[in-house]
Amino acid sequence: xxxxxxxxxxxxxxxxxxxxxxxxxxxxxxxxxxxxxxxxxxxxxxxxxxxxxxxxxxxxxxxxxxxxxxxxxxxxxxxxxxxxxxxxxxxxxxxxxxxxxxxxxxxxxxxxxxxxxxxxxxxxxxxxxxxx
Amino acid sequence: xxxxxxxxxxxxxxxxxxxxxxxxxxxxxxxxxxxxxxxxxxxxxxxxxxxxxxxxxxxxxxxxxxxxxxxxxxxxxxxxxxxxxxxxxxxxxxxxxxxxxxxxxxxxxxxxxxxxxxxxxxxxxxxxxxxx
Amino acid sequence: xxxxxxxxxxxxxxxxxxxxxxxxxxxxxxxxxxxxxxxxxxxxxxxxxxxxxxxxxxxxxxxxxxxxxxxxxxxxxxxxxxxxxxxxxxxxxxxxxxxxxxxxxxxxxxxxxxxxxxxxxxxxxxxxxxxx
Amino acid sequence: xxxxxxxxxxxxxxxxxxxxxxxxxxxxxxxxxxxxxxxxxxxxxxxxxxxxxxxxxxxxxxxxxxxxxxxxxxxxxxxxxxxxxxxxxxxxxxxxxxxxxxxxxxxxxxxxxxxxxxxxxxxxxxxxxxxx
Lengths: 132, 132, 132, 132
What we know:
The structure is a homotetramer. Chain A has 3 helices and 7 strands; from the N terminus they run βααββββββα. Chain A is α+β, with helices and mostly antiparallel strands. Chain A has one domain: Thiol Ester Dehydrase, Chain A. In chain A, strand 5 (85-94) and strand 6 (97-107) form a beta hairpin.
């Protein structure tokens, strides 16, 4: 698995005093980008202009209020995988208590969105390494 | 059902040229806030300080690329409902073609997050009116 | 001048209970995009791929707390203008009381950021029309 | 001075392929929050409920395109200071080249926004330590 730490900042929160729910997806994607930095950076993908890996499904469950200053441990593992897609599961913990989970499904497509294509080999191998 | 229109702005998009997935949840929540404005504005809820209605589950499916300038028709309908919670379903269409859907489940809690409480009566009635 | 209305939504605010300062810039840019929709939509500029109009300077002054649900009247007028750049001034009012101002300076550049180029003629004319 | 590093993530960018200008303010504020974590965390300020330190003026200059994956060195120093306010200056560098600057002016107010009050002593001392 891949692990990182995220501190909740003021812009993640809203006037109800806790995280604005959509920001949890932003935090998950930051974790994903950190993972990809070691494998196939998004910048490289965009510069090469051959493929994109848009998210086709995303979901989150919120178990505990998350507040500004909370330091969360994020764990990334691989869910389902096909030749053209992969699902990533994120677990957010605060002091060993799970506070939220996120899941995102990515499909590999040609950069003009004309259709599916296969996962890059280096990504496939890196995903194997974070299989739960 | 409740309907509104949202135009995709530059800040909704990212360097891949399409909407950043988390922004779809922001757009859905804006639609929800527009609905609540007619029923029980979020500002009123926050000012009264009795209850909050945090999201405990959110999910989205992305069917078509969404780009800056796209004018989307958003439809809001009620999904499952209990004494303490309700699910809202959002459909995003561009020129009558569905491009994405969102679902959010809200639980009504005491404002200190100490436990569940019942849906305000005016909200319960307004939700009845958007039952699919 | 160009005018629009913006309602402050939950995602604009933070745990201090008021607007997160950076969101005022987002609101200003949305107003700018609404103005451009009538002149030269950003989508058209991006699709044509000839020029970009990045912001080289931005500033804001915050006079009154802005809260969720506030309906703000935004006024856009032209500030300084050169052959290659233009400054836009935004005034935000709530019930006729000014609550904030924003200013953004845009420079017209070749789409590869290789250097300045002249304002498109249709934009130059539209800016004339919002000269204060 | 106070220093930190920020990596530009996809959500910071827009369809023009570079950072969305308002996100630079978000990055600056994250740096500020990192500084405050060592002095007087925002969470503590909000929990105590005595004061707030809203931003009354913000400005930014953008010198070079900033793209996804860019690792920026951020330096925070103190600008002007009064009994009730302070200005923070942020410099963003990529590989020793300055790419942008931000400045934010904060005023210390009673938490109900009823008027100005003095800087907390621990903050005053910490600001002394980052005087340029």
